[in-house]
């Protein structure tokens, strides 16, 4: 889900401490990590939402607890990117028939969609209505990967309810035009100054 192709040799570490575990800790950790990464501004293709389904007393159920996991017949954590419709994790502990497997996956995916609504709401409450000014620099304007990453980030900001305001740079383009005119610009306290 992370867009790290523009950040070669980058490692993003997320540390999660589970204070009390009553089942579902893997899914809870994935959900918390996704929100933390979005909150930190790490570029993401989509939010990752996770939820588990399982089989208890011959019935497919959603979000099983520790006791149901230990005494149940199957446990299936699923992680999902809802906007892209892509599963990023599926694990099965136990035995299911093909029909039960399909029902378990679909039940978990419905749970993931519910979790996604809560994740989105948490981010919206923090950021909704805030205005953020973003400089779109000239170097980013000439690199196709940076253009795509920038556009994705602006869309994410809008999705969480922020009001992104984009101001453009254009340093390389300005330098190129000044060269054509035979003029030279200089920087004084970080500002470009060009004599006429």
Walk me through this protein's architecture.
The longest helix is centred in the middle third of the chain and has 30 residues, at 98-127. The chain has helices at 25-39, 66-71, 98-127, 138-142, 144-159, 171-181; strands spanning 49-56, 59-62, 74-81, 86-90, 93-94, 131-136, 163-168, 185-188, 191-194. Strands 1, 2, 3, 4 and 5 form a 5-stranded antiparallel sheet that branches. A two-stranded parallel ribbon has the order 6-7. The chain has 6 helices and 9 strands; from the N terminus they run H-E-E-H-E-E-E-H-E-H-H-E-H-E-E. Helix 1 (25-39) packs parallel to helix 3 (98-127). The relative contact order is 0.12. The model has no long low-confidence stretch (mean pLDDT 86). 42% of the residues lie in helices and 24% in strands. The protein is an alpha+beta fold and 196 residues long.
Major β-sheet annotation? 5 strands, antiparallel
What's the SSE pattern? HEEHEEEHEHHEHEE
Question: What is the terminal-to-terminal distance?
Answer: 49 Å
Low-confidence stretches are none
The chain-level structural class is alpha+beta
Number of strands: 9
Query: Radius of gyration in whole Å, from Cα?
Result: 23 Å
Helix content: 40-55%
Query: What spatial form do the alpha-carbon principal axes imply?
Result: elongated
SS element count, helices: 6
Mean of the pLDDT scores? 86
Strand content: 15-25%
Annotation keywords:
196 residues, two-stranded parallel sheet, 24% strand
Q: What is this structure, in a nutshell?
A:
The protein is built from 6 helices and 9 strands; from the N terminus they run H-E-E-H-E-E-E-H-E-H-H-E-H-E-E. By secondary structure, it is α+β, with helices and mostly antiparallel strands.
């Amino acid at each position: 889900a992370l867009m790290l192709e523009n950040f070669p040799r980058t490692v993003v570490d997320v540390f999660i401490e589970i204070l009390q575990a009553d089942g579902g800790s893997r899914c809870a950790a994935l959900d918390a990590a996704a929100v933390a990464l979005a909150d930190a501004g790490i570029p993401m293709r989509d939010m990752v939402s996770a939820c588990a389904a399982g089989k208890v007393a011959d019935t497919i159920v959603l979000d099983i607890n520790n006791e149901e996991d230990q005494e149940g017949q199957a446990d299936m954590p699923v992680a999902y990117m809802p906007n892209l419709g892509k599963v990023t994790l599926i694990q099965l502990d136990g035995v299911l028939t093909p029909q039960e497997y399909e029902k378990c996956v679909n039940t978990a995916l419905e749970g993931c969609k519910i979790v996604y609504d809560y994740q989105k709401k948490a981010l919206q409450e923090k950021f909704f209505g805030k205005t953020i000014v973003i400089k779109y620099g000239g170097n980013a304007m000439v690199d196709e990967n940076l253009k795509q990453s920038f556009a994705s980030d602006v869309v994410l900001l809008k999705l969480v309810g922020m009001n992104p305001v984009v101001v453009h740079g254009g340093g390389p383009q300005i330098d190129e035009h000044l060269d054509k005119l035979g003029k030279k610009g200089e920087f004084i306290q970080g500002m470009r100054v060009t004599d006429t």
